[in-house]
């Protein structure tokens, strides 16, 4: 009876942060950018030729990949474009992590990694970060089937220096090492220049956070041509047309306005530094952040209680019921006004 059930791929899915439907929520729970995308994006949408929707989009995503290559001083063949970095990372897992030896990623890191590993049946191990949530490069000296970590790390906001990444690469020339740079624009040092030196390094970035475009779904990977070609072959074996015509057009527009981009980042960084002080005043310890969010622990109150209190008052932050981090809140840096509302509600908390 019901033996068909034996052949179902049973997985426990990744659970993204809540997207509340009600109005008036101060939404500091999914690391979205509180400011709009570059003004050119709006103009591009208004001028979009809807007749072109009859036609399939460019499966090679050539124009956007070229624009990214110019931006990062790479070549077109060094760039892979996908539907948000989640899609790019999933493709990379499928393409590069096919060893029977476990892949490695930190015990506290992006919780999607273990979900993909389970989905694709990739064995994995999670070396523990130290008590300050820093990586010990020596944990990655052992034999493995590949390495992935976010830098800055999510959900901790901690950024590792390029020296550490170089150290890990020097000890792992025989596997693919992926650095997930979803938050790198908020003050970290990117590993992109190391691509020229290490043919086994893949760097993944996204338009979702620093470019205020989580809703359009654009992510990209950068690496040597053989890595990128291998990812393209996997993509073309699965779905040739992942990127739609809107996204391809708008992505190019978003890259053009450097001034807007930099002003936007500067505002968020300044609000972040202010927020550290405001939270410390209220009894929180805050990890040093190079991202658009803070990871904070209160000296006397349990994070889960503060989380629920804030939520009742329409201030949404993120709380993870996971080992080691269940007494932390992850707070996205919003506008000055949103942050004021957060401080007000924290002051109301008894
Ligand atoms: C947000 C995030 C992503 C995914 O972003 P996309 O919206 O899919 O581009 C990937 N990695 C980390 C660490 C993130 O925080």
Report on this structure.
There is one protein chain. With 350 residues, the chain is of the alpha/beta class. It folds into two domains: 109 residues, Aspartate Aminotransferase, domain 1 (Alpha-Beta Complex), CATH 3.90.1150.10; 216 residues, Type I PLP-dependent aspartate aminotransferase-like (Major domain) (Aspartate Aminotransferase, domain 2, 3-Layer(aba) Sandwich). The protein contains ten helices and 13 strands. Strands 2-8-7-6-5 form a five-stranded mixed beta sheet, sandwiched between helices. It has a four-stranded antiparallel beta sheet with strand order 9-10-13-12. α4 links the parallel β3 and β4. The structure holds pyridoxal-5'-phosphate. Pyridoxal-5'-phosphate (PLP) binds next to α3.
């Amino acid at each position: 009876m019901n033996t068909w059930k034996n052949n179902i791929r049973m997985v426990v899915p990744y659970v993204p942060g809540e997207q509340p439907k009600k109005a008036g929520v101060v939404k500091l729970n999914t690391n979205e950018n509180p400011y709009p995308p570059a003004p050119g994006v709006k103009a591009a949408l208004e001028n979009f030729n809807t007749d072109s929707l009859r036609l399939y989009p460019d499966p090679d995503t050539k124009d956007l990949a070229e624009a990214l290559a110019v931006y990062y001083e790479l070549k077109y063949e060094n760039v892979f474009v996908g539907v948000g970095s989640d899609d790019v990372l999933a493709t990379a897992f499928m393409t590069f992590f096919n060893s029977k030896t476990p892949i490695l990623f930190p015990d506290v890191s992006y919780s999607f990694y273990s979900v993909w590993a389970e989905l694709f049946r990739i064995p994995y191990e999670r070396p523990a970060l130290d008590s300050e949530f820093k990586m010990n490069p020596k944990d990655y000296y052992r034999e493995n089937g590949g390495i992935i970590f976010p830098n800055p790390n999510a959900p901790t906001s901690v950024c590792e220096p390029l020296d550490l990444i170089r150290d890990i690469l020097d000890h792992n020339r025989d596997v693919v090492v992926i650095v997930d740079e979803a938050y790198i624009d908020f003050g970290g040092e990117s590993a992109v220049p190391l691509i020229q030196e290490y043919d086994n390094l893949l760097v993944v970035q996204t338009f979702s956070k620093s470019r205020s475009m989580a809703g359009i779904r654009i992510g990209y990977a950068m690496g040597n041509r053989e890595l990128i070609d291998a990812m393209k072959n996997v993509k073309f074996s699965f779905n040739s047309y992942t990127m739609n015509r809107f996204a391809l057009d708008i992505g190019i527009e978003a890259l053009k306005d450097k001034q807007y981009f930099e002003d936007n980042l500067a505002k968020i960084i300044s609000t972040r530094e202010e927020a550290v002080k405001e939270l410390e005043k209220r009894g929180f310890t805050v990890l040093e952040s190079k991202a658009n969010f803070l990871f904070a622990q209160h000296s006397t109150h349990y994070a889960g209680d503060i989380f629920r209190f804030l939520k009742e008052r329409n201030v949404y932050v993120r709380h993870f019921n996971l080992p080691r981090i269940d007494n932390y809140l992850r707070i996205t840096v919003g506008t000055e006004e949103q942050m004021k509302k957060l401080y007000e509600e924290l002051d109301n908390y008894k």
